[in-house]
Amino acid sequence: MEIFGIPSALLGSQLLIGLINGSFYAILSLGLAIIFGLLNIINFAHGAQYMMGAFIAWLALTKFGINYWVALIATPIIVGAFGVLLERTMLRKLYKLDHLYGLLLTFGIALIIEGIFRDQFGISGQSYDVPELLSGGVNLGFMFLPIYRGWIIVAALTVCFGTWFMIERTKLGAYLRAGTENSQMVQALGINVPLLITFTYGYGVALAAFAGVLAAPVFQVNPLMGSHLIIVVFAVVVIGGMGSIMGSIVTGLGLGLIEGLTKVFYPEASSVIVFVIMVIVLLVRPAGLFGKA
What we know:
single chain, mainly alpha, 11 helices, ABC transporter involved in vitamin B12 uptake, BtuC, 4 strands, globular
């Protein structure tokens, strides 16, 4: 069976790949959007923190025999705690300064983290086996769906929309948003705003680590995996609107699908299509599709 002259199996497989990539774009851009929207920090270390999540999961399995499911829970907590330490010791001093200072600091942190991992493990990729429970696949008729790939999509959507609900529809989210708008008033009501801000950065970093654990069985675990992805993720955030939670989720998934379709119809443009869309969006709507001026 063919669709627009393209075999349905090829089209379906590329859409699946696009949706998987879009799931990673959504989680990572969501973490960036939370940190920028609530803390006003452009976190360029996000890619390195994503890489840390993948490496910690790999080390947990190969060195300590800790399985995937435990790593999926423990790794975001560990990397999130590292993020809390960064926020407490370094980032807290930059909140009232220009965005450029935060970007330069986190860029330097990213280079240090990447350099440490390159020194210890080199740049060759490390393999991480798919957990036994999620091995194999399902024949959908028009394509073969690996179970683990399906799990990535489900897990990403659950985390993304759960995060959106927490920030936009709960009392904790209201405190977070109010604390960034008028911290003195919120503190006068007895809310510990500095603690909320620390929690916010730690949670954004934990999202990056969660994506890293999901990515470990799909991509080769190596120190460069974050730097290869972070530029595209920043483009996703800009297109969706800096600081827009829903914009990051919808744009990440949508651009992943567009990228997958581009590989079918015009493969040469697949690596630049996201940036072409970013340029067009910035010309038409500088604040992004879901952003506010």
